[in-house]
Specification:
By secondary structure, the chain is α+β, with helices and mostly antiparallel strands. About 25% of the residues lie in helices and about 30% in strands. The protein has 6 helices and 13 strands. The strands form 3 sheets. Strands 1-10-9-8-5-4 form a 6-stranded antiparallel β-sheet. A hairpin with a 2-residue loop joins strand 8 and strand 9.
Length: about 270
């Protein structure tokens, strides 16, 4: 492990002083599969309220921010206060357009912890009982950021979990990244409802023989069949490579994709000969 990797992992495990309450954090399924040349993200469309009741609207759970794509599940929005994880991600990941992906993810983590400190103190004050019954000791927010840095696929996962510290309740930020030291021909990350599909690719010979797209679709479909009360169609599927990204299938709530932005050379006077 390099010094940079060790520092990154240490920073990722830092505990920040936060308090939180939220509803059903697993009412969604997001699957990310990565090879050396391709990333595929799949997500269901069902939306439930705090008590698991299905809502009539559907949301696109995959968001484009520049050349990166983000999907998340858990405590995402609060209409009363304006707290909104997708909006925070949009601001954070575009703050320094020419930064590395790792630097952008660190900025996003900082933005989230700062916003959560304000938001979650309000929620704890107003919903103490719900906090004690639903969130103590649990992971309440998971975010995956995926894309290509040059010709290299990168997948970053940040999980936010309640914990106990000397002066009260805190949140531990736990990284689960797939970057330089990520092993395996096909690497996956699952978020949300995943009980029916955990270990399925590894236990099924030839699971990926028909490609990442079909494999990811199959995984989300299996979870929908197993947990239809929380996970539901249609399925959105996004394919990413070094040249760009395209929707394999999407509902109308998912916006059209924007072309990838070319990274500006921070040292234009330096040229290879």
């Amino acid at each position: 492990m390099t010094t940079h990797q060790a520092v990154s992992r240490l920073c990722g495990m830092l505990t920040v002083l936060l308090v939180v309450v939220c509803g059903n954090t697993n009412a969604t399924t997001i699957v990310v599969a990565r090879t050396a040349n391709e990333i595929v993200i799949g997500a269901d469309s069902k939306v439930t309220d705090t008590y698991g009741k299905e809502l009539s609207n559907q949301v696109c759970k995959i968001q484009q921010v520049g050349n990166l794509f983000i999907a998340s599940e858990g405590l995402l929005r609060d209409k009363a206060t304006g707290f909104n994880v997708p909006n925070i991600a949009g601001r954070a990941l575009q703050l320094k357009p020419d930064a590395t992906v790792a630097e952008k993810v660190n900025i996003l983590t900082g933005f989230l912890t700062a916003e959560l400190f304000v938001e979650l103190n309000r929620v704890r004050r107003d919903s103490a009982d719900e906090f004690h019954t639903k969130l103590e000791g649990q992971t309440f927010l998971r975010i995956v950021i995926a894309g290509f840095e040059g010709n290299r696929p990168v997948v970053f996962v940040r999980q936010f979990r309640t914990s106990f510290i000397a002066r009260g309740i805190g949140v531990t930020v736990i990284p689960d990244d797939c970057v330089d030291d990520c092993q395996g021909e096909v690497v996956t990350r699952f978020l949300g409802e995943t009980e029916a599909i955990d270990g399925l690719p590894e236990d099924t010979p030839g699971f990926w023989k028909d490609g990442l797209v079909n494999g990811v679709r199959r995984l989300v479909e299996n979870e929908i069949q197993a947990r239809s009360e929380y996970v539901g169609p249609p399925i959105d599927l996004l394919q990413i490579n070094a040249q760009g990204a395209k929707w394999i299938q999407k509902k109308q709530e998912c916006p059209d994709l924007k072309p990838f932005r070319k990274r500006v050379n921070p040292h234009p006077h330096l040229r290879r000969r």
